[in-house]
Task: inverse folding
């Protein structure tokens, strides 16, 4: 299987590339002042995340991530940006408030990151005895239609209600204007 | 489990998910428009999905469970985004703004 030279090195490099893509996309989504660039950052982040799903032995979810997030959710964001406001407003806060709120936000984010990283690295997570069940698309389909069929139907109902609700909300606004 | 190549270690994925969550919360606090806050919320959803997938891959016997769970998260996130965006568009029609500071009628 490992006949190709330096396979491990190449796979690790691709993995680091996926991680970097995800991190850069997330930072871009949060830090830019133009909302359209922020949406593009979300797209980049989701592509990196799809790569990570692939490394987690789930090519089906990688495909779904790209299909749903990049293909549907981000396009919806683009429509909303076009219909509403294209830019993050100019900063009208006083310099002191910027420092205080930026410090609070940075402190909260840094504290959460530090705490979760410590927790994840220190805890001895138990390994299962066997990993016999494969996560193939066939297995996912069977469990969707047997064990999780009720949740599956409820999700479809939630999506239907969401579509009708979105139509109703957007439509009443239009009639008034 | 915490040895071997980089892409086969649970803690790497946990750190990545924690980073996504931290970035999302930073954006949720600092963003001043509704759409920007919604994008940060999507990052938090992504962090939750990555966490679930990582634990599914490394600590669970049945590999299909986590994938089904993440599929449900994806579906619910799509529904939530469609509703939230339609509310944002309706708010923009009423107020001509999506800045969170200007969406207040009762403040003195």
Result:
């Amino acid at each position: 299987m490992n006949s190709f030279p330096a396979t491990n090195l190449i796979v690790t490099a691709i993995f680091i590339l996926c991680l970097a893509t995800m991190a850069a996309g997330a930072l871009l989504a949060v830090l830019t002042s133009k909302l359209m660039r922020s949406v593009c950052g979300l797209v980049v982040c989701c592509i990196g995340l799809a790569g990570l799903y692939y490394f987690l032995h789930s090519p089906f979810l990688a495909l779904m991530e790209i299909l749903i997030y990049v293909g549907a959710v981000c396009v919806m964001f683009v429509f909303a940006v076009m219909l509403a406001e294209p830019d993050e407003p100019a900063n009208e806060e006083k310099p002191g408030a910027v420092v205080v709120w930026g410090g609070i936000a940075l402190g909260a984010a840094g504290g959460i990151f530090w705490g979760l990283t410590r927790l994840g690295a220190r805890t001895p997570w138990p390994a299962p005895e066997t990993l016999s069940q494969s996560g193939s698309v066939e297995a996912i389909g069977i469990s969707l239609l047997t064990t999780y069929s009720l949740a599956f139907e409820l999700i479809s109902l939630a999506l239907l209600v969401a579509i009708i609700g979105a139509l109703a909300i957007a439509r009443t606004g239009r009639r008034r204007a | 489990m915490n040895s071997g190549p980089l892409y086969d270690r649970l803690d790497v994925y946990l750190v990545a998910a924690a980073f996504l969550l931290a970035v999302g919360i930073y954006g949720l606090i600092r963003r001043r428009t509704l759409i920007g806050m919604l994008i940060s919320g999507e990052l938090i959803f992504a962090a939750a999905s990555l966490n679930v997938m990582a634990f599914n891959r490394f600590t669970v016997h049945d590999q299909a469970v986590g994938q089904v769970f993440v599929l449900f998260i994806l579906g619910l996130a799509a529904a939530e985004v469609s509703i939230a965006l339609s509310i944002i568009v309706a708010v923009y029609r009423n107020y001509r703004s999506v800045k969170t500071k200007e969406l207040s009628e009762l403040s003195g």
Chain B touches chain A through 78 residues (CB under 8 Å). The radius of gyration of chain B is 18 Å. Chain B has three helices and no strands. The mean pLDDT of chain B is 86.
